[in-house]
């Protein structure tokens, strides 16, 4: 959970940091650009219109005194008519008092204000199309005569052009000699300029005397301005043009270009900032997800990305397997080589696994010898085969060694509702699934071989049981919940009681009656077995002492001592002291060691056995013949008793089995050891063992393990011949 929070924080901080700086930067830039553009446009428009406005204002002022006075009005109008402007004078009712030129006003007037001068005026749009006026007198300077020649030559073409484009305004600018309208009516005298020039159609290219003349455009939009004529209530409405010439367009383009460049730079800077931010974040996230040993994915990646993938709705119909793959020999390898070499090996293993990973699957190095895999699967058997193949590949990653790998698998099946629709995995917790895979793997933890184990409910039940046992172990000892059962050993020849084995039982108030198979292995694993052994030795010694005092014919009782106990160098002394504390003679207590214990530290073992014998305890080898052969240990260990494992007598030993048993007995005899046969259930086995000279039989044939009270009865009787019962 913590990892996920850290990851979320990293993502959040970076994203917000980037986003906020980006937004602030972008808005400030845009604001500056918009302010600049508006100011510039305002300036342009005002600069264009102010001159005409001022002219009209003068005309309006001139009209103020003349209007309404016949003679003066006439003089005024004829004067104004010559000004070259199209204009109107409206009376207080809006009716036209006088007009010059065609009235092409739009009927609707707009109340406007002329920029920073804050002058109010009426503005009318023009009904006609925007004129396309072409050319620029200042642009092309050619001699007047040549212009005239050229016009004469192209007159006809101009006519055509004018006919094709009604409303096309073609003007010719002349110097001292204004050109007269000719019969086409499309030429017009223009205002006087000192220069010479020609205005000709937009984008037209014309050749005069071999000289290429190119037109430039001028944007010219007609606009009617209405100004009040003093206090008369009349209005002077003049037609003006809002026009842009080449220089202005160039200036405008330059400013626009400059702004565009600024915007582009801003965008680039912003882009740079955000890309570097994203990169930085990527680096942090990558670092967060990278395993330093394999340079691949780590546990964090597995957990976060894996869970994200599994929760995606599009994968709800896909079955996934979460695998805990453990390199069993890793610790040994590191001890024999070096950490660096071990890590190199892990990297190689990771790479081999990586090659086997398909799309939408993942692998991560979880911890020292553990890898996490998330695989897609359709069928458990196919998955098993795939994993076996993978393990074979990584086993031979270093041909010089025999490596083993164990895989624990937890399956995430496709869940469907009653109508068969696949359900989302919104709440899936991958770490829990991985933990289940680890639990499945841990079932093989005692083995050193490669293997695959699938997580199932039995494992869960086992774990729960384990927890329940461990939770209660201490209180069980304190409350004396463990009971000592005695299983008598009889001589098959004389049928006399000649010994017993103490076997533990657990009478738990909440778990019920528990057999040792269900808790001894757990205690052997967690080390609590040493307490149990002490408990049993003390209790047996106490019982024996009591029985001795009560006058029973006591026989030696053997107690199981776990191999885990043999690590303690003063084990013999501990046992002696415990038995002494109960005041029990040493010869009434026998110590049983399991065969597998003989594989540990041999020297220490021989030492302990020797001392136990010195103190007067008999020592027996339990479960002889089960599992590994220990003939060799027999040679070195000064043992008193050999207990033949029940396995020899299970399901009828057969001829060969009988040979082995009789040879074992003979071997024991020649080594001066007594023999006990365990697990004998039928008379034939007992008869055979009697014939072979086996000293004692411990098995259901004579008696099952029993409570001390029942055992007391057996001691009292001393003699028992089950053959009599069977014969009856
Ligand atoms: P073990 O020491 O080999 O004990 C013999 C087991 O075989 C006993 O099982 C006993 O009940 C059973 N047995 C005896 N005769 C027959 C027979 O004729 N047929 C069959 N089917 N079984 C027979 P139990 O008492 O359940 O003990 C199981 C194992 O638990 C023991 O095997 C021993 O390894 C361990 N154990 C029991 N008590 C103790 C103890 O106090 N301390 C330690 N460390 N281990 C103990
Ligand atoms: Ca035993
Ligand atoms: Ca045994």
CATH domain class of the largest domain:
Alpha Beta
CATH H-level superfamily title of the largest domain: EAL domain
Q: Uncertain spans, ≥5 residues at pLDDT below 50?
A: 129-148, 165-209, 211-217
Q: What's the total number of strands?
A: 23
User: What is the count of DSSP helices, taking H or I runs of 4+ residues?
Assistant: 19
Q: How many domains?
A: 3
- Catalogue the ligands: ligand C2E, calcium ion
How would you characterize this protein structure?
This protein has 728 residues and is α/β, with parallel strands linked by helices. 46% of the residues lie in helices and 21% in strands. The chain has three domains: 29-145 and 218-257; 299-455, Reverse transcriptase/Diguanylate cyclase domain (Alpha-Beta Plaits); 466-716, TIM Barrel (Alpha-Beta Barrel). Strand 16 and strand 17 form a beta hairpin. The two termini are 72 Å apart. The model is unreliable at 129-148, 165-209 and 211-217 (pLDDT under 50). Bound molecules: ligand C2E and calcium ion (CA) (2 copies). The site of one calcium ion has 4 residues, from strand 20.
